[in-house]
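Sequence in, structure out. Go.
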Amino acid sequence: MSELLTLQHRRVLVNAYGTFGALELDGALICYLLELNWRNNAKGDWKTGSCVPVGNYLCTQHTWSANPEQPTWLINNVPGRDGCLYHPGNSIHDLHGCCCPGLVKVETGVEQSRAAIKKIAEVIGGFDQSFYTNIFYDSTFVNRLTA
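Output:
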């Protein structure tokens, strides 16, 4: 069994539309990310919920109840939470504490989310592969995200 990859989940911009970031491997951009803003790790929908706390997490293949045919990854062992996923979506209205990847960042969210899910799978070696994610804030990355 090969060693699991660690993807960097870099949060860089927080505004009224959510928390924006990037998913990277060894400094190379895989895709952009959209999450809810930090609300003290609260469970809830896009109005009351929070993004996942900063930390290192194991992500494993998951069958998403909203769309069982769509590959997703569960972010395991989030303190005080369950069901936090990397799954397709375009705006904070699609979130309940999860992370939406996208190949394109727009003012109000991300686009080409399903294509971003496929790109993550390509990077880690397939939809059935697990990986680690290191979630952190990095305000020095803003110029790269907004450029």
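Check: The mean pLDDT is 91. The first strand starts at residue 6 and ends at 15.
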